[in-house]
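agent> step 3/5: call structure_predict on target 'DNA primase' (Paenibacillus oryzisoli).
agent> reason: downstream docking stage needs a structural representation; sequence fetched in step 2, passing through unchanged.
tool.input:
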Amino acid sequence: MSIAIIVEGKNDRSRLKRVVDDTVIIHCTFGTPSSLTLDSLRKKVGDLPVYIFTDNDASGKKIRYLLRDTFPDAEHIYTRKGYAGVEGTPEEYLIGQLEKAGLDAYIVYPAPNPAYE
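tool.output (status=ok):
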């Protein structure tokens, strides 16, 4: 089964794609979503479980608030304040947050660096 993660922009999507498998569908709001955008997202997501992963800044919080109304059953994933949004969050931290959300089955773990073994 697949899941949907909603992020703010294409750079966030690119960052997440590096740590999740191809069954995860990542949608972007491309900024603060209008009611038309929210309706379109609702249709695209369908019955998939939804995870909302927006930046920990004023804009990200506003977008999360709007998405919360459209997807009341969504799980919320948070990045740490001080990181430059989802796109600027280290992969290790992203993976940790995805694990906390119970998404282990969808995570693509980086190969171990042989220099450190």
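agent> step 4/5: record observation. The first strand starts at residue 3 and ends at 7.
agent> proceeding.
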